[in-house]
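Go through this pair.

…
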Amino acid sequence: NFGEQDRPGTFEYALCYIVENKLDLSGFDAWYNNDKTGAAAYPPSVMLKIILLGYAHGLISSRRIAKACEHNILFMSVSGDIQPHYTSIAGFVAKMHEQIEPLFTQVLMICDEEDLIGRNMFAIDGCKLKSNASKEWSGTFDELGRKKAKLERASKRIIERHQSQDGLGEELITQDLKQKEKLDKSAGKITEFLATHKEKTGSKGKPVKSNITDPDSAKMTTSKGTIQGYNGIAINDDKHQVILQAQAWGSVGE
C-alpha cells in the first residue's frame, strides 16, 4: 500500500506536503502547459518530489533515481508509481534550474514560519567536490598554448613519416591517420578555448590554471590527492542545522 509509506513524521511525508501544498510552482506553467509542442510527460510536482527524495538518499545520478522509481517502494509511493526515464529526469534538472532555485527560498520561508531558524549563530563549512573534467586539460593560457603546439608538431610528424616512407602498410597508415585526427581535434579544442575565453587571474593578479572541459572548476588539493573540481560551501543555522545558503565555487579558499 503506497499510502502507508509516507506517514506523518517522515521526511517523505513532509516533502510531499510541502511540494503539493506550500510551494508556488507557477514558474513551471510555461514548461508544463505548452499547447504548441504538447504537455510534458510528467507534472513538475512529481519530478521535484522524486529528485529531492533521491538527493536526500544520496542518489545524484538521474539513472539511479529512475531505477529507484522502478524498484524502491518509497519512490513508488512519492511518485504515485510514475516511472520517468532517466533522460526526462536529467532534462528537467538541466532545463528547469532557473525555476527550481527560487523554491529553496520558499522552503526557508516555511522553516522560518515554523520557528526552525534561530538567527543567533551561523556556521560555515566546506568540502571539495570532484567535477566531471580531466586535470590533463588544465593550464594557464601559456601552458595551453605550448600543449597545442606540441599536439600540432606530433600531427605534423605523422605526415612527414608517410611522405618519407611510401611503402607503409595500409593497416599502419589507417592507424596513423586516426591518431592524427585525434591530435588535430585536441589542438582545435585548445584553439577554440583560447579564442573564446579570458585568462583567469589569482588574488595577486597572476595567471591561474583554467580547464578546457569545465572552465568554472579549479585544481585543488584534498586529503586524497589533487582533483579538478569545486569548493562546496554551506552556511547553516545552529538551531536546527537548517542550511541557509550553499554554493559551489571554482576556487580553493572558503
Summary: The first helix runs from residue 11 to 21. Residues 234 and 246 are 4 Å apart (CA to CA). The first strand starts at residue 122 and ends at 130. The mean pLDDT is 85.
